[in-house]
Write a structure and sequence with these properties.
Strand content: under 5%
Number of helices: 8
Radius of gyration: 17 Å
Helix content: 55-70%
Number of domains: 1
Order of helices and strands: HHHHEEHHHH
Number of strands: 2
Structural class: mainly alpha
Strand order of the largest sheet: 1-2
Low-confidence stretches: 1-11, 114-123
Distance between the termini: 25 Å
């Protein structure tokens, strides 16, 4: 998976963090001032999600970012920490938009098959032609067993954060992120490749 550098220029990061704090304090206009600073990185996250599917998608990255923006407006209760935290939340929203879209398409096809992921584009060990709904369900199952590991997967895989950026966003050590990332991938491999078998706890 290509890394999406979140750290960026220190002044830009400080500016983004400042706007996030203003937004968190009730300044709704801060989000409008924030979007030009983060728009291209949000589009990069959206494109990475769309490219996971091995066929042309009916959604476009611009439309995904627009929908994510509309959902971000409703995030009034989030206590924004920093730039990495913002992109983690945005990536989660983009993931939810795509999963909702995939489930609607699946329902419309009446069992005709969910959108598929090509294994060469997936940074997780998974069976060939894994579908996005199966991956989403697997992450929900992992979260029920170990929320911390699921967060690491979400930040590394969906938001594209590096190991240090993930550690900063979660306020844990890089060693913990590395351990959880390896363990979570192994658990997901077992869960996705052997769906009829109960995967052991990741811990």
């Amino acid at each position: 998976m290509g890394e999406c550098r979140i750290a960026g220029n220190p002044m830009t990061s400080a500016g983004v963090t400042g706007l996030l704090i203003e937004w968190g304090h009730g300044d709704r206009g801060a989000l409008d001032r924030l979007m030009p600073l983060v728009y291209e990185e949000l589009r990069g996250i959206a494109r990475r999600h769309l490219n996971l599917e091995g066929h042309p998608h009916t959604l476009q990255s611009t439309a995904l970012v627009h929908e994510a923006y509309l959902r971000l407006i409703d995030q009034n209760r989030v206590q924004w920490k920093d730039r990495a935290h913002f992109f983690a939340v945005a990536a989660r929203l983009i993931r939810r938009i795509l999963i909702d879209h995939a489930r609607r398409r699946h329902a419309e096809k009446r069992g005709g098959g969910a959108p598929r992921l090509t294994v060469e584009n997936v940074a997780l060990p998974a069976p060939q032609n894994l579908d996005v709904i199966a991956l989403d369900d697997a992450l929900d199952a992992l979260a029920a067993l170990d929320a911390a590991q699921a967060q690491v997967v979400e930040l590394r895989f969906f938001a594209g954060l590096t190991i240090p950026e993930t550690a900063e966003a979660l306020q844990i050590s890089t060693a913990t992120v590395e351990r959880d990332w390896i363990t979570a991938k192994a658990w997901l491999f077992d869960h996705l490749n052997y769906p009829g078998r109960s995967a052991p706890s990741p811990r």
